[in-house]
């Protein structure tokens, strides 16, 4: 789950990292009042969960309160990168001397956190990696050891342009980001840019935090945001509300299974025989009738889906329960698509019999089911 910049900065401040003076506004009058309180030029920043908002006109500077009010009235309600702007972060415009970069994220291949720092902040870090790899320092964290300020100072030693005093301040911030990542179960904690001002102060000019969805039960303050994902398709958003593990794909064969590995293998097999999966849907182990009905109904509702392949390995998942869920979906849905079911395991005979009585074709061999759904 992505946090808004204002939420991320609230967390940074809680941990002692400086951020620009400012507050959020939901209308132009509030923006004007905040700008008046700040009493200097301000930045009005659209609070949306997509990156690149600055390049799309989502961040605008204003020199006084009147201009801030005018800018706010234009930004609030505007659609930027497919998202409606409902609030703004109004904060002081910084006098930036240097822009740096710092983040803690997950290296999934290494299965551990990686800390990234750079002397080139304010731009996409991917560009820096390609154009100037010497401007990036990386450190893979041993989870048994952790990460501290001393390690951060060692990372920064490769940047001779950073003097000792600044390196000490920068290192403290980097170490704090790691603590935030641990405390908030974060997949990403990023400051870009970390601004060094003319007074020598380090301030988080922009910030991003993404929390692992699976850990949200430990962060009840974000409970009302648990189903919000800016990059969800409409069907993915609906599936998330129904607590279904669903991902949209660009094919026309609906795929349903129980267990991520089984569903992935089914996707591969469909591709092997020349088909294109329309989705990934894992109903999980021990799914009950209502869950199965919702999953089948959801997949059939996708216009691009021509046929549905259901692949079930009955362990704790009972085949008779799966069969009843499929039948309920067919009986209650106004949308009907051809269905092929490969089902084996617990209560297999009873489940197969129920499906056959309902006119649904069943198969004990996955390849036969794939060929049937593809019309081979």
Would you spell out the secondary-structure blueprint of this structure?
Layout: H1 5-14, E1 22-25, H2 28-38, E2 42-46, E3 59-62, H3 65-75, E4 79-80, E5 83-84, E6 88-92, E7 96-107, E8 112-118, H4 125-131, E9 136-140, H5 149-156, H6 164-183, E10 186-197, E11 202-204, E12 207-211, H7 234-241, E13 245-248, E14 253-257, H8 260-272, E15 279-282, H9 289-301, E16 307-314, H10 319-332, E17 339-345, H11 348-357, E18 361-363, H12 366-374
Parallel strand pairs: 14-16, 16-17, 17-18
Antiparallel strand pairs: 1-6, 2-3, 2-6, 4-5, 7-8, 7-10, 8-9, 10-11, 10-12, 13-15
Helix pairs in contact: 2-3, 5-6, 9-10, 10-11
Structural features, described:
With 376 residues, the chain is of the alpha+beta class. It has three domains: 21-92, 2-Layer Sandwich (Dna Ligase, domain 1), CATH 3.30.1490.20; 96-224, D-amino Acid Aminotransferase, Chain A, domain 1, CATH 3.30.470.20; 234-374, 3-Layer(aba) Sandwich (Rossmann fold), CATH 3.40.50.261. It has twelve helices and 18 strands. It has helices at 5-14, 28-38, 65-75, 125-131, 149-156, 164-183, 234-241, 260-272, 289-301, 319-332, 348-357, 366-374; strands at residues 22-25, 42-46, 59-62, 79-80, 83-84, 88-92, 96-107, 112-118, 136-140, 186-197, 202-204, 207-211, 245-248, 253-257, 279-282, 307-314, 339-345, 361-363. Strands 7, 8, 9, 10, 11 and 12 form a six-stranded antiparallel sheet that branches. A four-stranded antiparallel sheet has the order 1-6-2-3, covered by helices on one side. β10 (186-197) and β11 (202-204) form a beta hairpin. α2 (28-38) runs antiparallel to α3, α5 packs across α6 and α9 (289-301) crosses α10.
């Amino acid at each position: 789950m992505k946090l808004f910049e204002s939420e991320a900065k609230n967390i940074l401040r809680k941990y002692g990292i400086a951020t620009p003076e400012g507050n959020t506004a939901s209308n132009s009058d509030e923006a004007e009042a905040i700008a008046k309180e700040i009493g200097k030029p301000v930045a009005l920043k659209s609070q949306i969960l997509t990156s690149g908002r600055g390049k799309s006109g989502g961040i605008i500077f204003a020199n006084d309160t009147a201009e801030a009010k005018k800018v706010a009235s234009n930004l609030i309600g505007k659609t930027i990168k497919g998202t409606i702007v409902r609030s703004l972060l109004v904060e002081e415009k910084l006098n930036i001397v240097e822009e740096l970069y710092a983040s803690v994220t997950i290296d999934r291949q290494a299965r551990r956190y990686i800390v990234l720092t750079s002397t080139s902040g304010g731009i996409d870090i991917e560009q820096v990696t390609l154009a100037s790899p010497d401007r990036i320092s990386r450190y893979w964290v041993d989870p048994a050891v952790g990460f501290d300020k001393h390690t951060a100072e060692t990372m920064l030693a490769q940047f001779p342009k950073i003097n000792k005093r600044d390196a000490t301040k920068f290192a403290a911030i980097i170490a704090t980001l790691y603590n935030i990542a641990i405390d908030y179960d974060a997949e990403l904690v990023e400051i870009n840019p970390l601004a060094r001002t003319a007074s020598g102060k380090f301030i988080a000019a922009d910030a991003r935090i993404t929390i692992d969805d699976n850990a949200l039960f430990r962060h009840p303050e974000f409970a009302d945001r648990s189903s919000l994902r800016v990059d969800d398709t409409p069907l993915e958003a609906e599936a998330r509300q129904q607590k279904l593990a669903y991902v949209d794909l660009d094919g026309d064969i609906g795929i349903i299974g129980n267990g991520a590995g089984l569903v992935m293998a089914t996707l591969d097999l469909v591709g092997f025989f020349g088909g294109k999966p329309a989705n990934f849907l894992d109903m999980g182990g021990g799914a009950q009738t209502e869950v199965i009905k919702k999953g089948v109904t959801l997949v059939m509702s996708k216009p691009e889906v021509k046929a549905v392949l259901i692949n079930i390995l009955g362990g704790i998942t009972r085949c008779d329960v799966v069969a009843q869920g499929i039948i309920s979906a067919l009986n209650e849905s106004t949308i009907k698509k051809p269905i092929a079911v490969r089902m084996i395991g617990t209560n297999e005979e009873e489940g197969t019999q129920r499906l056959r009585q309902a006119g649904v074709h069943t198969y004990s061999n996955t390849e036969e089911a794939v060929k049937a759904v593809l019309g081979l």
